[in-house]
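Students often ask why inverse folding is considered easier than folding. One informal answer: many sequences map to the same fold, so there is more than one right answer. In these notes we will look at a single instance of the problem. The structure comes first.
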C-alpha cells in the first residue's frame, strides 16, 4: 500500500471523540471472531505497513502490538471498513491464542436458555502467555 492509498483509506474512517475506531479481528480462513479492540490512525498505519496487527490500548494509552509480549501475533490478511465507516474488520492469521485468558478467542461467555455458560476452556495457562 502506498502512502496515498493509506491516507485515502484513513479519510473514509469515522473516528470517535478519542480518535479511535472499533476493530474486530476475525480468523481469515475459518471466519471465527477472535476479539474486539480499538485502533487509532497511528496503529492503523503501522498495521497496514507491517502487515502485523497493532491496536491502541485505552488503559495504557499507547500502541499495543498484539503478541509483543506473548508471542501470539496476528498477521493481517485484509482490512475492511464497514458501510458507516466506524468499524474495522481485520481478517487475520492468528498465531496461537487471541485472548489474554489463554483461549482461542475472547468470546467465551454465552447466555443460553436463561443461563450463562462458558463455551470454551483455556488452551494454555495465561501465566505462560506472559512468562510469569
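Output (designed amino acids):
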Amino acid at each position: 500500500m502506498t502512502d496515498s492509498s493509506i491516507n485515502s483509506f484513513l479519510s473514509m474512517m469515522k473516528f470517535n471523540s478519542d480518535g479511535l475506531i472499533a476493530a474486530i479481528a476475525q480468523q481469515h480462513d475459518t471466519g471465527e471472531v477472535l476479539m474486539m479492540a480499538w485502533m487509532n490512525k497511528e496503529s492503523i498505519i503501522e498495521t497496514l505497513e507491517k502487515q502485523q496487527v497493532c491496536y491502541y490500548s485505552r488503559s495504557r494509552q499507547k500502541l499495543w502490538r498484539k503478541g509483543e509480549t506473548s508471542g501470539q501475533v496476528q498477521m493481517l490478511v485484509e482490512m475492511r471498513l464497514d458501510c458507516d465507516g466506524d468499524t474495522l474488520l481485520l481478517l487475520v492469521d492468528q498465531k496461537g491464542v487471541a485472548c489474554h485468558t489463554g483461549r482461542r478467542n475472547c468470546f467465551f461467555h454465552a447466555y443460553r436458555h436463561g443461563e450463562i455458560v462458558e463455551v470454551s476452556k483455556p488452551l494454555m495457562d495465561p501465566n505462560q502467555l506472559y512468562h510469569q
